[in-house]
Specification:
Shape: globular
Strand order of the largest sheet: 1-8-2-3-7-4-6-5-9-10-11
Helix content: 25-40%
Number of strands: 15
Radius of gyration: 19 Å
Bound molecules: threonylcarbamoyladenylate, magnesium ion
Low-confidence stretches: 1-6, 223-229
Mean pLDDT: 91
Number of helices: 9
Strand content: 15-25%
Distance between the termini: 34 Å
Largest sheet: 11 strands, mixed
Order of helices and strands: EHEEHEHHEEHEHEEEHEEEEHEH
Length: 330
């Protein structure tokens, strides 16, 4: 078993079937680190109750600081054992779970998610994923599994087992080989700490869907002007090696081009490489392709990735958020 990134681990490839998932659950229970598919991105899981496993997880990712982690649970009972659900939190859970929504709520005094996983906060981030492999794994584990995206800190989030292995092969205990993820961007994070829900991170559930349920606009946790409560919401969190140039109307010679929709930008013929997020202009398809296309364009060796304008509604809000972070100065 691997406890520090300096220890070579023989990273197991587990099939997404009963035997593979059983293996994954027992490795987690033994304090191991196991990457697994969720509907958003691959998560790097550890037993959320186990401070040593969580410390090993931070070390494996090379995280510069101890950001609070999302605890993944199989059902509502497990969620309520960890967090205090105000009526509005219950409504959001009922409407969007299982699915790509994380709720940050006050922790239960006798909750089991350890201090380190919560970065010492009195709140806990909870999510019930909908991916069948994740659901089976969580049911089998029977404890909250904390899981950040299964990439090295500062790298692009993984949407396939191959992406996970590109960053973490030899560092983690195992990967459940569950194919490509469907949503492609991480969960939407909403905090419900003192009544009014606020959006900490746009993601796989569009803001509009949450606002329709609440019947009012969602406050934004990032507009508060103070330290963001979600440290993962910091800029420069999704960095390709190439610089990223947003709102590109013209592709410059030698740039890699990230496209959206059917109208080709000027200069496309001199691009070093190009990928279209969705030729038909579908934002859900674009979200699913975002990180994979960024990785592919980065691998082309171009020093700049030009990104055409992308609509900012629906899943476009999460896509543009991740692109702004990829483009941030670092
Ligand atoms: O879709 C996802 O959310 C994926 C999959 C694996 O579930 N996970 C993911 O985890 O994106 P990560 O660690 O990359 O991002 C988790 C975010 C961080 O920004 C963290 O600060 C925030 O959740 N978070 C977790 N608990 C929190 C808390 N108690 N208060 C504020 N923010 C919290
Ligand atoms: Mg991440």
């Amino acid at each position: 078993m691997n406890m520090t990134p300096s220890t070579q681990a023989d990273t197991g490839r587990l099939a997404p079937d009963e035997a593979g998932i059983a293996q994954a659950a027992s490795r987690l229970a033994a304090g191991g680190l196991v990457a697994f598919p969720t509907e958003t991105v691959y998560g790097l899981g550890a037993d959320g109750r186990d401070g040593r496993a969580v410390a090993a997880l931070y070390a494996a990712k090379g995280r510069p600081s101890f950001n609070p982690l999302i605890a993944h649970v199989a059902g509502m009972d497990a969620a309520r054992a960890e967090g205090v659900f105000a009526p509005v939190a219950m409504r959001l859970a009922e409407a969007f779970w299982p699915g790509p929504l994380t709720l940050v709520v006050p922790r239960q005094a006798d909750g089991t998610v350890c201090d380190l996983a919560r970065a010492g906060l009195d709140s806990v981030g909870l999510r019930m994923p909908s991916h069948p492999v994740a659901r089976d794994l969580l049911r089998r584990a029977g404890f909250p599994v904390v899981a950040p995206s299964a990439n090295l800190s500062g790298r692009i989030s993984p949407t396939s087992p191959e992406d996970v292995l590109a960053d973490l092969d030899g560092i983690i205990d195992a990967v459940v080989m569950g194919g490509r993820t469907e949503v492609g961007v991480e969960s939407t994070i909403v905090a419900i700490l003192d009544g009014e829900p606020s959006l900490l991170r746009p993601g796989g559930v569009p803001r509009e869907a949450i606002e329709a349920l609440l019947g009012r606009p969602l406050a934004s946790g990032r507009d508060a002007g103070e330290t963001p409560i979600a440290p993962g919401a910091l800029l420069s969190h999704y960095a390709p090696r190439a610089t990223v140039r947003l709102e590109a109307k013209v592709i410059r010679p030698g740039e890699a081009a990230l496209l959206f929709g059917s109208v080709p930008p000027a200069g496309l013929e001199v691009a070093a490489a190009s990928r279209d997020l969705s030729p038909g202009g579908d934002l859900a398809e674009a979200a699913a392709n975002l990180f994979g296309h960024l990785r592919a364009l980065d691998a082309s060796g171009a020093t700049s990735i030009a990104v055409v304008p992308i609509p900012d509604h629906g899943l476009g809000e999460a896509i543009n958020d991740r692109l702004r972070r990829a483009a941030a100065e670092r």
